[in-house]
């Protein structure tokens, strides 16, 4: 089996130079994709442009852009432009985001998110294929087409967790990006999505499932666990409830309640997971020494098409380097893991 690995970041990571350096190193280490998120901090599209100009092979993904933050026309222009800059390596990730972000940052009512997601994906895909804009508010206006070469080949991956948005991914997506999916539940969830895809869109190719754990490698396993726990607890307690509900619905309601109770004022770096809830950490994260992380990721390789490790925000560069080396895909059954020293030389050069 070919091992496919990708790297994803969190919206809380705002060190542009570190993001670019990590992407360059990820390409050197053989990762197939590097995903830059967008929330309330950095605009991901110029960062992806910078990465594209510094790399030549690795796929670059917006994972994800909110369907509330840009119009379908702007999303199509962005995707077509990045596809040209990336020389065909771009993946457009779209998601419905969260109520807290949509209303508290974009000043837009968070209404019917699944319908909004489906509508925007459909419109963007049509524009990228060279079709005229689908006018809804001003149907009497003259509909325009994208004023550059069509880019119908841009894959659109859909971020979805709930049943309605997951159905949208099956209907209109090229890939599925589920965040904070429990390791032992991912394979069954992916299987259900593939069966749904076959039922509702049999003419479309199979979905790519890109998912993976929050990942930290450190020579001190306790340090790695503390960092992974802080990031996991932050997502479960400070993201408007969407991840807490999702993980609870996967069978971990008791553990999620314990994590919420232990973090009345959560912080991305100071949040904690009480010992009673450690089983959920082991389902959502891979942590420990480099060898331990590599071993833990083998179970994820059986569940996802491309295991996308998620780097917690604010990691010092040596920890990022160690984590990327530990989780890098092997190039063959007898191939040793990359030498961290060569990665360090690359980092210094870039």
UniProtKB/TrEMBL annotation:
<dbReference type="InterPro" id="IPR011251">
    <property type="entry name" value="Luciferase-like_dom"/>
</dbReference>
<dbReference type="GO" id="GO:0016705">
    <property type="term" value="F:oxidoreductase activity, acting on paired donors, with incorporation or reduction of molecular oxygen"/>
</dbReference>
<dbReference type="InterPro" id="IPR036661">
    <property type="entry name" value="Luciferase-like_sf"/>
</dbReference>
<dbReference type="InterPro" id="IPR050564">
    <property type="entry name" value="F420-G6PD/mer"/>
</dbReference>
<keyword id="KW-0560">Oxidoreductase</keyword>
<feature type="region of interest" description="Disordered">
    <location>
        <begin position="327"/>
        <end position="350"/>
    </location>
</feature>
<protein>
    <submittedName>
        <fullName>Luciferase-like, subgroup</fullName>
    </submittedName>
</protein>
<feature type="domain" description="Luciferase-like">
    <location>
        <begin position="5"/>
        <end position="303"/>
    </location>
</feature>
<dbReference type="Pfam" id="PF00296">
    <property type="entry name" value="Bac_luciferase"/>
</dbReference>
